[in-house]
Write a structure and sequence with these properties.
There is one protein chain. With 269 residues, this protein is an alpha/beta fold. It has 10 helices and 16 strands. The chain folds into 2 domains: 67 residues, Arc Repressor Mutant, subunit A; 185 residues, Rossmann fold (3-Layer(aba) Sandwich), CATH 3.40.50. The strands form 4 sheets. It has an 8-stranded mixed beta sheet with strand order 6-5-4-9-12-14-15-16, sandwiched between helices. α2 packs across α3 and α5 crosses α6.
Length: 269
């Protein structure tokens, strides 16, 4: 991606979310944090944003954005990422069977999965994401349960003590965990502490754990660790991950699904 296009994506992203961390922008755009800091410095010189420790916030004097942004607004800013999210969702939807009880944690990949649930029948969906709940509820044959709690404006999701208490009352046979980093040594991680706590709360109450992750986020570690890789029964990602990870997952009995092939742990494809 050229610098001018990268700057456009950063500006639109910060317009939508009002703030961003260097880490999340680096992961989203697949460039170094040094590059992101230089981009933020230029945008601050333009008066678009104000740099903070570890990131930046939108300069309110320059703000003309709509506060009611949804994932569609954010995704549409960069069709490249829209394709990648959809690519993973197209595979993940085939893992869901009619009659399943599932949980979709908040995130753009799970949002795309929710948009495809009209292809399924009698699905019960548990989620803490307001936008996912609305998409999943568009099918009359499916049931949606939205976890209560404090609503986080940026992520459009519920978190907190009430959410953690509510989640203990449910059991799901398939848990779809959207994560920000997968690394052999540090395991599975996300960039949000509340999201990490939520995922850890539902792990004991789920039969099958399906991890969703962009291919560009392999061999990366986000700020909050969830667990080692061995908690995953399946991992769904883009096909461009390193062969090292394909072999590692195969050797450890973790099923890997991509848009090109599915490799079952313990048997050659």
């Amino acid at each position: 991606m050229f610098a001018i296009e990268r700057m456009r994506v950063i500006k639109n992203y910060i317009k939508a979310k009002k703030k961003a961390s260097v880490n999340e922008l680096s992961q989203m755009l697949n460039v170094s944090e040094v590059t992101i800091r230089k981009d933020l410095e230029k945008l601050e010189d333009e008066g678009f944003l104000i740099r903070t420790h570890g990131g930046a916030v939108l300069n309110k004097q320059d703000s003309s954005s709509n506060p009611n942004n949804s994932y569609d607004n954010i995704i549409s800013l960069n069709s490249q990422y829209d394709i990648l999210y959809t690519e993973i969702a197209d595979i993940a939807i085939h893992i869901i069977e009619n009659g399943d009880i599932i949980m979709l944690t908040n995130g753009m990949i799970n949002y795309h999965i929710a948009k495809k649930l009209n292809k399924k029948q009698n699905i019960t969906v548990l989620t803490n994401d307001l936008l996912i709940s609305l998409e999943a509820a568009s099918s009359n044959s499916n049931k949606v349960v939205l976890l209560g709690g404090d609503v986080d404006f940026d992520s459009k999701a519920t978190y907190g003590a009430l959410t953690a208490l509510n989640i203990q009352k449910f059991f799901v046979n398939k848990l779809f965990i959207e994560v920000d980093g997968i690394d052999v040594e540090t395991g599975i991680s996300v960039s949000n502490m509340d999201k990490a706590n939520l995922i850890n709360s539902i792990l004991p109450n789920s039969r099958e754990k399906i991890v969703l992750c962009l291919g560009s986020n392999f061999n990366k570690t986000a700020f909050y660790n969830i667990s080692n890789l061995d908690i995953a029964d399946k991992i769904v990602t883009n096909p461009n991950i390193d062969n090292f990870y394909k072999k590692f997952l195969f050797d450890n009995g973790i099923q890997l699904y991509t848009s090109i092939t599915a490799v079952e742990g313990g048997s050659a494809e």
